[in-house]
Structures are given as C-alpha cells and as structure tokens.
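Quick one:
INPUT:
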C-alpha cells in the first residue's frame, strides 16, 4: 500500500484550508491504491490553523529534543508535531506501506526541504518531523515530484 499526504490527494487540510492537489496521487487514492494521512490532524490540530515552522534545526533535531516547532504567533507546538509523527508511523506500519509520499516543504511532511523558522518564506535542506521519524524507522519517504518521476 502507498500512503500519501492528504493535501496531495486534494483534501483541504492545509493550515490555511487549501489543498496541494497532485492529480496522479488523487487518482491512486480514488483507485484504492493509496491511503491518505495528515500528520498535523493526527497530532490534534484542526483546519484552519496557524502556520508553523521548525526553529533550530530540522525534524531529526526536533525528535532529539534539539529544535522546536513554533506557530507564527509564538506558541510551542513541538509535542503535537511529535504526536502526529508517531501516529503517522503507526498508520504506515499497520498498512505495511511500501512507499510514503509526503508534501514537500511542510514542517511535518517535507522530506528534502523545509522553511527555516523565520516565517519569511526561506527554505533550507532538511526533513519535517514526520518524514524524519519515518526515515529513522526504515520507511522510504518520497516527495510528490520524486514519486511522480517513479511513475513514468
Ligand atoms: Fe499536507 Fe502534511 Fe501539512 Fe497535512 S501535515 S496538510 S498532509 S503537508
């Protein structure tokens, strides 16, 4: 089974109530070949919610207690991000996911790039919290572009 970010399948679960539709991914979900997850909703957030970024490192650093996830207005939401990551890992394991496709740039789902914690739209190389936890547990994570490449 393939597990995909809910927003890539067109579900309006992003912080601002929008989606990040990828038609290839939506089709897989419609054909029951992929299952959606949203780590932030699994962590207890609702939509809409404040944007959040990782400050002081990336998802691996958050898992190790060396960085935190903070909302734009300053609330520390690190624990909720870690909770969502563990829930996503559990779901991926239950589904025996062969591949997990997560939305790039997100503080949860980014798997090569994330925002740098300044809320200025600047990106740095790094993983979101969920991607880091999945990778640390031996699960392959691809972003939407990498995945679509594998389908060609
Ligand atoms: Fe999409 Fe992941 Fe953000 Fe949920 S947490 S809206 S699945 S990028």
């Amino acid at each position: 089974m393939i597990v995909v970010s809910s927003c890539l399948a067109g579900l309006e679960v992003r912080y601002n109530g929008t989606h990040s539709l990828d038609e290839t991914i939506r089709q897989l979900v419609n054909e029951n070949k992929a299952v959606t997850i949203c780590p932030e909703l699994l962590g207890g957030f609702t939509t809409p919610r404040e944007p959040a970024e990782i400050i002081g490192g990336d998802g691996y650093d958050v898992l190790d207690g060396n960085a935190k996830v903070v909302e734009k207005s300053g609330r520390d939401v690190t624990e909720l991000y870690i909770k969502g990551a563990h829930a996503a890992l559990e779901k991926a394991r239950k589904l025996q996911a062969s591949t997990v496709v997560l939305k790039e740039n997100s503080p949860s789902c980014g798997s090569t790039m994330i925002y740098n914690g300044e809320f200025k739209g600047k990106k740095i190389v790094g993983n979101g919290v969920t991607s880091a936890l999945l990778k640390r547990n031996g699960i392959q994570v691809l972003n939407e572009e990498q995945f679509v490449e594998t389908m060609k």
